[in-house]
Amino acid sequence: MSGVFINMENEVFRGDVLDIGFENYGIVYSVCKSFQDEIAVDYVDNIKEQEKAFKESYDSCVMFFSLREVLFTYSKKRLLKNVSRLLKSNGDLYIWDVEKNFKESITKKVIVALPDKKVKEIEIKESNPLKDTTMSSTLTIVSECFDVLDTKCSNGIYYIKGRKKIAVRR
User: Fold this and answer.
1) Is residue 164 within 8 Å of 91, Cβ to Cβ?
2) Which DSSP state fits 109?
3) pLDDT in tens, 73-92
4) CB neighbours of 20 closer than 8 A, spacing ≥ 6?
5) C-alpha closest to that of 64 among 157, 168, 162
């Protein structure tokens, strides 16, 4: 099994943070807690309900190995469009995910360095041959609602940072 190291010791998410994840690793909360005295990290499992209640109320959204859980491209587009509605006009999106092509099966050990010298180890398994979670396919989807500010890819793990696009009214 291949392993990869992610250093989040100095990662800072602005303001109120929306953590979209199918598994709660506690990583986003740990990062936010170390840099803010008062934190608001909300976890979402039903984004439609969240959208009704909290439209344009978050400064940041973090998807830590969660976009890969969404099977179809259409569903990913819909999810990111909903996330965009939840973010304030200058809201940021942070994505960490695994690089996997159709028909591939992968297992990765991910070691995450957190603030306060803590380390969290997680295992990512993806065996669904129908899933495409490559950075290039994700960038295509992300760029519909977000301006891409930064990308990184190393050892089969990628990072994307985007900022909500400002809608032009006509």
Assistant:
1) yes
2) E
3) 999 999 999 999 999 999 99
4) 43, 44, 47, 61, 62, 63, 66, 79, 83
5) 157
User: Where do we find the tokens 């990308």?
Assistant: 151
End-to-end CA distance of the chain: 53
- Here the tokens at position 127 are 């065996």
Domains of the chain: 2-164 (3.40.50.150)
Which residue type does 27 have?
I
Report the candidate in 78, 80, 64 with the shortest Cα–Cα distance to residue 21: 64
Decide: 6 and 112 in contact? Cβ < 8 Å.
yes
Task: Answer yes or no: are the C-beta atoms of 99 and 55 closer than 8 Å.
Answer: no
Q: Give the model confidence (pLDDT) of 3-54 as tens digits.
A: 788 887 877 788 888 888 766 667 666 666 655 655 555 555 555 555 555 6
Please count the residues of the chain.
170
